[in-house]
Amino acid sequence: LLPEPALRDKYEEFLLRRLLVADPGTRWCPAPDCSYAVLAHGCAECPRLTCGREGCGTEFCYHCRQPWHPDGPCVSAPPAPGLPTPTAQPAQPEDSAHGEALARNGSTEAEDIKVCPRCSAFIMKINDGSCNRMNCTVCGCLFCWLCLREISDVHFLSPSGCTFWGKRPWSRTRRILWQLGMVLGAPMVISLVAGVAVPVITIGIPIYMGRKVLAGGLGSRRSSLSGCQQCLSVTSSVLLSLFVSPIITAVTVGVGVPLMLTYVYGTVVLSLCR
């Protein structure tokens, strides 16, 4: 697929680097212009690492990833210009070339670059009004850009204060007011939703099925069905839908209403008590 050896080697290098970045035991040599990686699993008790690249041989610390310091404790490296300080984040296994590129980009806003909560790879979000649901291309982690936590698809519906769009989570006061409004207004809103859903589903399904069968008969089967056959087909589908739609309505309301009540008076109330 890649006939040029140089291009193929570069492609394989990027694949290997992507795999190493996702490994929490990888430690990158801190020497300038060196992207050598040391697989340092189980080296926490003996933190002195040595770069195996020919001509380098830099010794560095497993814990702080800085040059070896036998006479002093680990000191966190100063954050690069324009980068956020990754407080209480996992280890940062990014390679030195990537870090230098970010450091040179002094025009980048600090809040535009954050670290993945799983693999700590640097991720940049373009300030174009896009959503806060992020997917790390290195490890595949799905996380929230605002709280930097791994999330599920219902995270932005939860009382976390994180919004699908926007630059900041809600304040604690606003979040509490919203949760109180949900608790107090849930009976009325759920009753309204159920009251609208019952006639819409009960009447809407037969109408939809009748129109769908009629459109199909007038289309592909127009030449094979007579007018009486089309009328009989539409009538039978509507009658069958009238029989099935109340069952679908009962199941939808019977399952949906308890789920909504459980969420409001379970998840939301527990969040208020924290």
From TrEMBL:
The chain crosses the membrane at residues 176-209, 247-273. Pfam families: IBR. One of its GO terms (molecular function) is ligase activity. Keywords: Ligase, Membrane, Metal-binding, Repeat, Transferase, Transmembrane, Transmembrane helix, Ubl conjugation pathway, Zinc, Zinc-finger. It catalyses: [E2 ubiquitin-conjugating enzyme]-S-ubiquitinyl-L-cysteine + [acceptor protein]-L-lysine = [E2 ubiquitin-conjugating enzyme]-L-cysteine + [acceptor protein]-N(6)-ubiquitinyl-L-lysine. It is an enzyme of class 2 (transferase). Residues 79-106 are annotated as: Disordered. Its EC number is 2.3.2.31. Residues 1-166 form the RING-type domain. SUPFAM superfamilies: RING/U-box. This is RBR-type E3 ubiquitin transferase. One of its GO terms (biological process) is protein ubiquitination.
